[in-house]
Each structure stands twice: as structure tokens, then as C-alpha cells.
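User: Can you predict the 3D structure of Copper transporter MctB? Sequence below.
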Amino acid sequence: MFINIKYFIVTIAAVFFSLGIGIMIGFNLNNSEIFTQQQIKLVDDMDKKLNELRVKNDEMNNQLVEKDKSIEIYNEFVNSYYEDLIKDRLVDKNLLIIQTTDDYFFSDISQWVAISGANIHTYLSINSDNFNSLTIAQYPDLFTEDSLDTEKLFNYIINLISENNSLKLAELEQLGILKIVSTSNNQEPFNQVVLLGGELEESKEKIEKVDLALARSISSKNIPIVFAEESNANYSSIEQFKNLKISTVDNVDQAIGRISLSMVLSGVDGNYGIKDTASKLFPTYK
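Assistant: Sure. Here are the predicted C-alpha cells for Copper transporter MctB:
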């Protein structure tokens, strides 16, 4: 019988094609079994690791609960003895308090001063947003090459406070440069300065031109200075003040922080608080 060459070629091709499919199916079935075993092992390993993580998580939660209990007990202890620890500790201090931020209220400062026995010579806040209201025509001595020199401005303000020049301070207050929060009838010169700062948002230029410029101005007059901020300050400038060798307290909103502030003003220099920039939580009590 005559065999058509095309039929022969097609038949051979079909045989080889079927053989190829069979080999592929067999290979895939074998690989599928291996893959399934690998999946089972992977799932088992993941389940084991998850169980380990659950155990560690439970341990950490328990540790946090115990830590919170310890902190609560510690805070209760500190609050119980807070007034006894600071009462009349600063009777010889006549303080100049300058606040460089509107982001935080420092609501406990007045009470702290009253209990500690200190006197507030002047409490004022600085508003750097209004510095552009100062003109070279009005205050030529405060400018360098047509630009306001903030250190010169702060030297000027500190001198006005030292001289009890309320009229010139009132002029600056009208321009919005500063706000007088409180003053004392005590005409004795202030002998220590407390700077209150901390920002909601990072502002390196403001820190440099206001906070640090103010600190340098005060330090140049050899007046003891301490910088304090609240524990919840989003952007801390403690590190910059440390670089200027200025004592700091980073949790002045807490009782333990105000005790630290009292001790620093009593002469125990250092960097205290709860943040990474602090060298110790609390000064050695003297």
C-alpha cells in the first residue's frame, strides 16, 4: 500500500508530540509533589516562627505592663515629695525667664517658681515672626550690612531688662517682637536665666538665629543659663545647647523635670531628662 509522505510525517510528529506531553505531565506531577512538600515545610516553619513571635510579644507586653506599673509608682512617689524637694530651694534666685516658642505652654512654671521661693524678675516671650517689623531707620545699631543681627537684638533686650527700661521694652512689645508675661517689683538684678524652647516642627534657621543667638548673648555677659523644654517637644534642640556647654532639662512638664531644673539652678550642672540627649534622668541630690 502506498503511504502518503505527508501522513507519515504528521503521524511521526503526533507521536513525538504525545510523548513530549507525557514527559511534561510526568515531570510536573513529580515536581508538584516536591513543591507540595516544600510548601508544607515552609508553612510549618512559618507557624513555628509565628508561635515564637507570639511568645516574645506576650513577654514584651508583660514587661511593658510591669514597666508602666513601676513608672506609675515612681511618679506617685515623685509627686508626693515634689514640693518638699523644691520648697524654698531657690530663695536667692532672681530669674529672667525667656520663652522662645509658642508651641508649648509651660503651664506649671509659675507654680514651680512660687514653691521654690524664687522671684521672677521678668518673664517674656520672643516672637521671631515679627522681627521684620524692625527697620534699620529705627534701630540702626541692630543691623549689620542691612540685615538684622539677632545677637545684637538680644543684647539690646537683655540690656533693657537689666536697666529696667520699661518704656523701650514697651516699644518692642508694640512691634510684636516680644511679650511681657510678668514682671516683679523687685529691682534687684536678675542673676540667672531660664530659656524655654522646643518646636513642633524642625526649624534649624529659627534655632540658630533665635534660641542659640539668645543663649550666646546671655553667656557673653557671664550670666548662668539653663535651657528647658517639655518631654513631648516634637523637635528638640537640646543637642545644640549641649554643644554650647549649657545645662539642659528635657522634661520640664514633669515633676521630676522641675526638680531637676531647681537643682541645676542651685549649681548642679548637666543634661537631665528622659531623652537620648540626657546624661542622667536626675541630678545627684544635694
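Residues 29 and 187 are 97 Å apart (CA to CA). The mean pLDDT is 88.
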